[in-house]
Design goal:
Structural class: alpha/beta
Shape: globular
Radius of gyration: 19 Å
Strand content: 5-15%
CATH architecture of the largest domain: 3-Layer(aba) Sandwich
Helix content: 40-55%
CATH topology of the largest domain: Rossmann fold
C-alpha cells in the first residue's frame, strides 16, 4: 500500500518517526519521504522554481498514494490544501491530531460530509500507532466496494428529492443512513 503522510514542520519529529516505523512494519510505502529528504519548507529563501517543484512533487505524491494521512496538530495552510486535494481525488484520508494540541472535533474539516475522511485524536505514540495501523488495514485492497442497487421507483424518487433538497449525492444519503444504522446497532469496527 502506498501512503502519503505529511505534517507541519512544527510537528514533533517523533510523530514522523513513529509513522515511518509503523509503515515499515506494515510493508507500506511512503510516496515521498519528507523526513529523509529534510524539510524543504523550513527554508524561506526557496526560489519560485523550487517552490513549484515541491508543490508538483506533493501533488504527484498524493495522486500516487492509496491513502493519505496528515497530522493536523499544528495549523498549516499546506496541510489543509493537501487534505482538500486528497478528498477531492477520493483518497481515503486520515487527519490526526495530538489531543494536547488540537481537538479534531473543533476543526473546520469536521464539517466535511466526505465519506473518505476520518478524524482521530491521539494522546500517546502508542495510540497514534494503533489509529494509523487500523486505518491502513481498513483501506487495504482499495477500501471501497461498488454496490449495484435495485430500488422501487418510490425509494428512488425520495432519494432524488433528498438530493435536490440537501445537495448531497444519493450515494452519500445512503451511506449516512447505513452509518445511522451502524450507530443504532452499536456495531464497532474499531476505527
Amino acid at each position: 500500500m502506498k501512503v502519503f503522510f505529511d505534517a507541519s514542520v512544527s510537528t514533533n519529529d517523533k510523530v514522523f518517526l513513529t509513522i515511518k516505523s509503523l509503515l515499515k512494519t506494515m510493508s507500506a510505502e511512503l510516496t515521498y519521504d519528507w523526513v529523509e529528504r529534510g524539510s524543504v519548507w523550513e527554508d524561506e529563501k526557496l526560489s519560485l522554481d523550487d517552490r513549484q517543484i515541491v508543490f508538483s512533487k506533493t501533488i504527484e505524491s498524493i495522486l500516487r498514494a492509496d491513502i493519505v494521512i496528515c497530522d493536523v496538530s499544528v495549523s498549516s495552510m499546506r496541510i489543509g490544501h493537501e487534505l482538500a486535494f486528497a478528498l477531492e481525488k477520493s483518497k481515503p484520508t486520515l487527519a490526526i491530531a495530538d489531543i494536547k494540541d488540537r481537538n479534531v472535533e473543533t476543526l473546520f474539516l469536521k464539517g466535511s460530509r466526505s465519506g473518505f475522511l476520518t478524524l482521530k485524536n491521539y494522546d500517546s505514540y502508542d495510540m497514534l500507532s494503533k489509529i494509523v495501523g487500523k486505518f491502513i488495514k481498513k483501506n487495504e485492497g482499495g477500501g471501497r466496494s461498488r454496490l449495484n442497487l435495485s430500488l422501487e421507483s418510490y425509494f428512488n424518487k425520495y432519494l432524488e428529492w433528498k438530493q435536490f433538497e440537501t445537495g448531497i449525492s444519493k450515494t452519500e444519503i445512503l451511506k449516512n443512513a447505513i452509518k445511522d444504522c451502524i450507530q443504532k446497532d452499536k456495531w464497532n469496527d474499531n476505527i
